[in-house]
């Protein structure tokens, strides 16, 4: 068993920022456990090649409260910058360490990984994000169409096809515009207007809609999908049915409730209960990043890490004064 001062679970923007803020505060022995082979796996896996990483996301401008902030970059330059940050602050990130269990034992936590490694620490920060499982539609996806239904852009995107993109946020808008470069795309959203899309995406979307390859279908819900030959038949709430070659859902992510509850985190109104610094009802157990942000973004993840480390630092100072 390895001991640390803080164990951080997840090396996304929030987990990395906890490492940075902790290093700047002089806290030693911060271990960051990451389930995948890379840091920032959500960005590596779910952002398409060349994607713009917006500093203002979901139309919310977030002023930096900690050491990390960035200007809008591409996926590749953002990831290169994150690597620089990791090197500069000599962050101790352990890849291929998926955490399965966190439990309190006296005044310390035991953190159990799938590869049998065990860590113990007085503070644990859970920063595992919400994209482990993308939100799926409420109706079933029949087995016959599963190879035509996507939740992110695949490495080999379709070309020359009739494509449906479902969702009303930035990811859906970006995907629709990107796919419309080589497909005929319909972007379907159940509300009658987009209100979660940032300015640059709205602008690109409007531009794309002036070409014939992209149309929006607003104010209609989808009630189900079914196979139709090599296509997917989509039934809309008004009774209309349209067949597409591929359907892409961008409906966001969901908090990993079972994992958090097992660690002792309570829920109220569908959200984990934490204080303003991200501390849960279990003293010493913090949440950061998308898990706590009302409108998750990279800047919000950075700021939540600053709040977490601020409280840990105060708690460490109080303990050393007592001693
Ligand atoms: C397609 C798409 C486009 C987006 N575009 C933008 C944008 O342009 N600008 C912006 O600000 N935001 C954007 N976002 C949102 C942004 O990616 C998130 O807000 C941000 O990544 C949240 O950071 P996080 O560290 O909380 O979580 P994540 O980035 O999700 O990181 C969580 C990390 O934890 C790891 N992990 C998960 N489970 C475990 C476990 N059990 N044990 C160990 N490790 C684990 C994961 O592998 C991952 O590396 C976008 C999101 C998507 C899906």
Keywords for this entry:
single chain; 323 residues; alpha/beta; FAD/NAD(P)-binding domain; five-stranded parallel sheet; 21 strands; elongated; binds flavin-adenine dinucleotide
Describe it.
It is a single chain. This protein has two domains: 2-133 and 253-322, FAD/NAD(P)-binding domain; 143-249, FAD/NAD(P)-binding domain (3-Layer(bba) Sandwich), CATH 3.50.50. 26% of the residues lie in helices and 26% in strands. The chain has helices spanning 13-24, 41-46, 75-88, 170-179, 199-210, 257-262, 298-322, and strands at 2-3, 6-9, 30-33, 52-53, 73-74, 92-94, 99-105, 108-113, 118-121, 123-126, 149-150, 162-166, 184-189, 214-218, 222-228, 231-236, 241-244, 246-249, 267-268, 271-272, 285-287. The strands form six sheets. The chain has a five-stranded parallel beta sheet with strand order 6-3-2-10-21, with helices on one face. Helix 1 (13-24) packs parallel to helix 7 and helix 4 (170-179) packs parallel to helix 5 (199-210). The longest helix is centred in the last third of the chain and has 25 residues, at 298-322. Residues 9-15, 33-36, 40-43, 46-47, 53-54, 57, 98-99, 127-129, 131-132, 170-171, 289-290, 296-299, 301 line the site of flavin-adenine dinucleotide.
Helix tally equals 7
In terms of per-residue confidence, which ranges show pLDDT below 50 for 5 or more consecutive residues? none
Small molecules bound in the structure, each named once: flavin-adenine dinucleotide
Whole-angstrom Rg: 21 Å
Q: Number of domains in the coordinates? A: 2
Query: SSE order in H/E notation?
Result: EEHEHEEHEEEEEEEHEHEEEEEHEEEH
Largest sheet: 5 strands, parallel
The CATH topology of the largest domain is: FAD/NAD(P)-binding domain
CATH architecture of the largest domain, by name, is: 3-Layer(bba) Sandwich
The counted number of beta strands is 21
Strand order of the largest sheet: 6-3-2-10-21
Which CATH class of the largest domain? Alpha Beta
């Amino acid at each position: 068993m390895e001991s640390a001062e803080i164990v951080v679970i997840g090396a996304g923007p929030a987990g990395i920022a906890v490492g940075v803020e902790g290093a700047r505060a002089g806290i030693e022995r911060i271990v960051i456990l990451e389930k995948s082979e890379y840091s920032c796996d959500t960005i590596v896996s779910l952002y398409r090649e060349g994607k713009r990483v917006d500093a203002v996301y979901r139309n919310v401008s977030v002023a930096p409260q900690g050491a990390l902030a960035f200007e809008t970059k591409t996926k590749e330059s953002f990831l290169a910058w994150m690597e620089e940050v990791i090197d500069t602050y000599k962050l101790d990130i352990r890849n291929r360490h998926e955490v399965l269990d966190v439990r309190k034992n006296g005044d310390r936590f035991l953190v159990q990984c799938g590869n049998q490694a065990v860590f113990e620490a007085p503070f644990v920060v859970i920063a595992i994000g919400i994209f482990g499982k993308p939100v799926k539609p409420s109706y079933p996806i029949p087995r016959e169409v599963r190879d035509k239904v996507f939740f992110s852009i695949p490495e080999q995107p379709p070309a020359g096809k009739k494509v449906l993109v479902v969702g009303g946020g930035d990811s859906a808008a970006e995907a629709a515009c990107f796919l419309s470069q080589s497909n005929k795309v319909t972007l379907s959203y159940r509300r009658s207007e987009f209100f979660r899309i940032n300015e640059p995406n709205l602008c690109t979307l409007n531009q794309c809609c002036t070409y014939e390859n992209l149309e929006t279908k607003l104010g209609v819900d989808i009630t189900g999908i079914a196979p139709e030959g090599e296509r997917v038949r989509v039934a809309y709430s008004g009774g209309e049915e349209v067949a597409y070659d591929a359907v892409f859902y961008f409906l966001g992510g969901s908090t990993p409730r079972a994992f958090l509850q097992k660690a002792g985190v309570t829920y109220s109104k569908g959200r984990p209960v934490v204080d303003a610094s991200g501390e849960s009802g279990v003293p010493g157990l913090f949440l950061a990043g998308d898990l706590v942000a009302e409108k998750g973004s990279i800047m919000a993840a950075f700021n939540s890490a600053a709040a977490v480390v601020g409280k840990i630092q105060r708690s460490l100072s109080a303990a050393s004064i007592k001693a």
